[in-house]
Write a structure and sequence with these properties.
Elements (H helix, E strand, L loop, with lengths): L2 H15 L12 H19 L7 H21 L4 H14 L4
Helix pairs in contact: 1-3, 2-3
Length: 98
């Protein structure tokens, strides 16, 4: 599945839940999405708290949550994540780390 299909699926879900509507209890603002992204990333960390290996199914679910918020945040800002990732990789090839 490509990123566009994932973005569209996320958009359909959020629209179906009414979260773009005025007065929504879960307003999909960039600020709220950024906060949610970090909170979900923390839940990934929590799976590794006190152990080296996380439950695979739980990890998959939390990583999906992170990706969904990331996709939505990028979409609201008109950022093509595929292009952004490739551009960042190109930059990183030029970098040197100590």
């Amino acid at each position: 599945m490509d990123l566009r299909a994932l973005e569209e699926a996320m958009e359909q879900f959020v629209t179906a839940k009414g979260w773009y509507n005025p007065g929504s209890p879960r307003p999909q603002t960039p600020r709220n999405l950024a906060i949610s992204l970090v909170l979900e990333a923390a839940e990934v960390l929590e799976l590794f708290q006190w152990k080296e290996v996380a439950d695979r199914e739980a990890l998959a679910g939390e990583l999906a949550d992170v990706m969904l918020y990331l996709l939505q945040l990028a979409r609201l800002h008109g950022i093509d994540l595929g292009e952004a990732v490739m551009a960042k990789l190109a930059q990183n090839y030029q970098r040197e780390w100590p």
